[in-house]
Design a protein that fits this description.
The complex is a heterodimer of chains A (689) and B (139). Chain A is mainly α and 689 residues long. Helix content of chain A is 60%, strand content 1%. Chain A is built from 34 helices and 4 strands. In chain A, the strands form 2 sheets. A two-stranded antiparallel sheet of chain A has the order 1-2. Chain B is of the alpha+beta class and 139 residues long. In chain B, 39% of the residues lie in helices and 24% in strands. In chain B, a hairpin with a 5-residue loop joins strand 4 and strand 5. The longest helix of chain B has 22 residues. Chain B is globular, with a radius of gyration of 14 Å. The chains are: A mainly alpha (689), B alpha+beta (139). Chain B: This is Trafficking protein particle complex subunit 2-like protein. Chain B: It is found in: Cytoplasm, Perinuclear region; Endoplasmic reticulum; Golgi apparatus. Chain B: Belongs to the TRAPP small subunits family. Sedlin subfamily. Chain B: Keywords: Cytoplasm, Endoplasmic reticulum, ER-Golgi transport, Golgi apparatus, Transport. Chain B: Its main location: cytoplasm.
């Protein structure tokens, strides 16, 4: 055990061998090459290092305070070591105090890897039995992994190893996994020294890790037994095939996201504007802060709009979040637009069917066709009802029967067009993920790469927002164009036709009543011919006489005859003459309407009368000819017309009453206004003077 | 090194305020609040004619013995106020300007987020990270 240099706080720091070694490595790392005073570590590098410890910012502030760097203004070795120890304490869940570093602690962990990796592969504190501070977000993923890790680490501890050796092993676990994830690109200087001691492990896993070969082999350290344990649990590191990576979008998901993108914005190369995306993602029922964070992650160029890869990333994050995966702090590499861009645009050629449609086609038609193709592939799935229900609940994993089925479910649900159903699609897609994801995943994050990306993105965004005219124009043009989403009523081809058919039928119904108005002009003819024809055939005569009487009597309306039996004879017709009087009152109010209606009931009356007599009778009456073609209406229609007329009359009465009331109110208000104006004029002369 | 960074809305209420030494937070809040008066003074002193050409960086608002307060006002009347430690003499004016520019960029990114309603408090993690980096850079 060594005693580290006493810090400004006057504490005595006890460092183990491993700690001493590690701290000196880190300190050497943070020291600037040449330049400023040798014993001091460069502020920025220290800052980077501390941030890589994944501790919250205020904890880091406390640590810097405690270690005394603030007071002296720089990070000397003492301050640095104290700070490192404090970081280790904080990562172990102990409060940031001087006292906490007096005990033995695991080495502080610095990584650019996501929290999940370190959590997933266990934690040194776990071995020590210390409940370490798990960020609550990663707790879920922890749960299945920890028992495995715990067991394995227990096994590996059995060979004679000092407790202090195993802690370095566990940080090395994720260091190794992180490093061997498949990225041979140069890492930040921070990680290199960490990688160096653990190359032995890499060497043993050459057959699995394609990119591990970047690191030269060194003699194995004591961790060889650990390495074997790691080999057992190691996932295939084939960089092209990570079925268990939650942040990797599968083909089916990609297609699904692309289809969703199309529903919002048919042009795959264009953007979805912020407001459209906001409405869409709000349907996922995630809380707004989380959606805000997801947007931040996925909108890489920060232009307020989502391109297709950005949209896929955002959608994927939402789906993952719905499934309980915590949101990352940085966008995973597999969700970066650069990564997704070629993949997302590739299926475009597969969807040539849709792309062949001209842009002028309304979206509804496009989605209709699209849905038609989906309909063909849909099969009845009894389990489809389940995902339909579960959307709002942040449920645990539900085992989908198959990815294809679930996709068909999504297609099925997509056909049900309402917004809720669109949201339900998310749930079905969400169900696909658990199948793909297994507990053992790890991040593929490289903050260096991401920083590079963000750096690249940043100047790009500036240019987009300020200078690029064509981009602004393009964005100005295209975002407004997203056609309205297919309405609830017609996304199905059949329903659309039904709508048309229905309209046609209603028009056909109305067309029945067309003949009556043209019958108006012949009215005088009828009246003239009435008496003339009254002398005609018997059955027609009384009908005609009654018809004539109706004509002559302006106000007599034959509404009542509708109620009568279709087979009307003279007697009922004569009774009709008497009965219409009661209908007069109703019908006087809107004079024009009853005239038409008069024709209609008269039509019906006539038609009903003439149904029984031969058609020849009716043909003899030229005046009635316009009515002749319309012999179809039966009593049902008569009754329908009657009820319709009654309703209209009632409505008319109500509206008339309302009108009169409003007129009265208007008069009152006028009076008030006049009173006020007169008062005003009384006052005015006074002020004018 | 900034000890306190605040983003003040047009209506002079804080959208975001964060300070490093967490025990003296109230003091910094008060400082920022009083600095708003100085900001208004500077703006009105410029005159109406210069409103369009007004430079966003307002410079040193006022120094005290412990720290200096710098101001920056955007075209939408959103103010950024930064309190820096006086003991840190290495910080020069153009560094402060660059810090404000970074703040402004991050603020713009926050605004681009459709889920952010202008006038809400800023809860963006990216913004937090950027502010942290500014506070810690010469830690």
């Amino acid at each position: 055990m060594e005693q580290g240099p006493a810090g400004a706080a006057g504490l005595r720091l006890l460092l183990s061998d491993a700690e001493q070694q590690r701290y000196s490595e880190l300190f050497a790392l943070c020291c600037p090459e040449g330049g400023s005073p040798a014993p001091a570590a460069g502020g920025s590098k220290v800052g980077d290092l501390f941030r890589a410890s994944q501790l919250p910012a205020d904890t880091l502030c406390q640590i810097t305070e405690l270690c005394g760097a603030k007071r002296v203004g720089y990070f000397g070795p003492a301050q640095f070591y104290v700070a490192l120890k404090l970081i280790a304490a904080a990562q172990s869940g102990l409060p940031v105090r001087i006292e906490s570093i007096k005990s033995e602690l695991p080495l502080p962990r610095f990584m650019a890897v996501k929290n999940d990796v370190e959590m997933r592969y266990g934690n040194a504190a776990e071995i020590h039995g210390v409940k370490f501070q798990i960020p609550p977000a990663t707790l879920e993923k922890n749960s299945f992994r920890k028992p495995d890790e715990g067991d394995k680490q227990q096994e590996t501890k059995s060979p004679p190893m000092s407790p202090m050796c195993s802690p370095p092993a566990s940080p090395s676990n994720y260091q190794r996994i992180h490093l061997s994830y498949g990225y041979g690109k140069p890492r930040s200087g921070l990680e290199q020294p960490h990688g160096v001691p653990y190359e032995a492990r890499h060497a043993t896993h050459q057959q699995e890790g394609p990119a591990i070969g970047n690191y030269g082999s060194k003699s194995a350290l004591v961790h060889s037994s650990l390495s074997q344990a790691l080999a057992a649990e190691k996932e295939p590191h084939d960089s092209s095939n990570y079925p268990d990576d939650p942040w990797r979008i599968t083909e089916e998901q990609q297609e699904y996201y692309i289809n969703q993108f199309k529903s919002l914005q048919p042009d795959l190369h264009s953007f979805i504007s912020g407001s459209v995306a906001k409405n869409f993602f709000t349907k996922s029922k995630l809380p707004i802060p989380e959606l805000s964070h997801i947007w931040e992650l996925s909108d890489v160029d920060c232009d307020g709009a989502l391109t297709l890869p950005e949209f896929c990333a955002a959608f994927h994050l939402i789906v993952a979040r719905k499934n309980g995966y915590p949101l990352p702090d940085v966008l995973p590499e597999t969700l970066l637009p650069d990564y997704l861009a070629p993949a997302s645009l590739k299926p475009k050629c597969d969807c040539a069917l849709l792309d062949s449609y001209p842009e002028s086609l309304p979206v509804s038609q496009q989605t209709r066709d699209f849905n038609r193709t989906e309909l063909e592939t849909v099969h009845e799935d009894p389990t489809s009802s389940e995902p339909l229900i579960l959307f709002d609940v942040a449920t645990s994993v539900v085992e989908p029967t198959s990815v294809v089925e679930v996709l068909d479910n999504s297609a099925l649900t997509q056909d049900a067009i309402s917004d809720d159903n669109q949201a339900l699609n998310i749930s079905t897609a969400a169900k696909t993920i658990p199948k793909d994801f297994k507990p053992c995943q790890y991040w593929s994050v490289k903050t260096v790469a991401q920083e590079l990306n963000t750096l690249k993105a940043r100047p790009r965004s500036r240019s987009y927002s300020s200078t690029s005219i064509e981009d602004a124009v393009k964005r100005g043009e295209e975002p407004p164009t997203p056609p309205p989403r297919p309405q609830k009523s017609h996304s199905r081809a059949s329903s659309l036709d039904l709508n048309k058919i229905f309209q046609q039928s209603t028009q056909a119904v109305k067309s029945v009543w067309l003949p009556p108005p043209p019958a108006l002009p012949p009215r005088p003819l009828v009246s003239q011919q009435g008496p003339h024809h009254a002398t005609n055939t018997e059955p027609a005569a009384p009908a005609k006489s009654s018809y004539v009487e109706f004509r002559l009597q302006e106000q007599t309306k034959q509404v009542s005859e509708i109620e009568l039996h279709p087979q009307m004879n003279r007697v009922p017709s004569q009774t009709e003459e008497s009965s219409p009087t009661k209908k007069e009152i109703l019908l006087t109010q809107p004079p024009s309407k009853p005239i038409r209606r008069k024709f209609r009931p008269e039509n019906q009356m006539l038609e009903s009368q003439e149904l029984t007599p031969s058609l020849s009778v009716t043909s003899s009456l030229p005046a009635v000819k316009p009515h002749l073609p319309v012999q179809k209406p039966s009593s049902k229609q008569k009754k329908a017309i009657q009820t319709a007329i009654r309703k209209n009359k009632e409505a008319n009465a109500v509206l008339a009453r309302l009108n009169s009331e409003l007129q009265q109110q208007l008069k009152e208000v006028h009076k008030e206004r006049i009173a006020l104006e007169s008062q005003l004029e009384q006052f005015r002369p006074v002020t004018v003077l | 090194m900034a000890v306190c960074i605040a983003v003040i809305a047009k209506e002079n209420y804080p959208l975001y305020i964060r300070s490093i030494p967490t025990e003296n937070e109230l003091k910094f809040h008060y400082t920022v609040h009083t600095s708003l008066d100085v900001v208004d003074e500077k703006i009105s002193a410029m005159g109406k004619a210069l409103v369009d050409q007004r430079e966003l960086y307002l410079g040193l608002l006022y120094p005290t013995e412990d720290y200096k307060v710098y101001g920056y006002m955007t075209n939408s009347k959103v103010k950024f106020v930064m309190v820096v430690d006086s003991s840190n003499t290495a910080l020069r004016d153009n560094e402060i300007r660059s810090m404000f520019r970074k703040l402004h960029n991050s603020y713009t990114d926050v605004m681009c987020n459709p889920f952010y309603n202008p006038g809400d408090c800023i809860h963006s993690r990216a913004f937090d990270n950027m502010v942290t980096s500014m506070m810690m850079q010469v830690c």
